[in-house]
Amino acid sequence: MSGAARDIWIFGYGSLMWQPGFAYAEAHHARLDGYHRAFCIYSVHYRGSTTRPGLVLGLDRGGMCEGIAFRLETAAAAATLAYLRRRELIYGVYREARLPIELLGAQGSLMRGERLNATTFIAERAHPAYTGRLSLARQVELIRGARGIGGTNLDYVLNTLAHLDSLSIAEHRLARIRALAGSFAARGSALNGARPRALALSRNWANMPIARPRVVRDNRFSHRAKIAALHAT
Question: pTM of this prediction?
Answer without folding.
Answer: 0.75
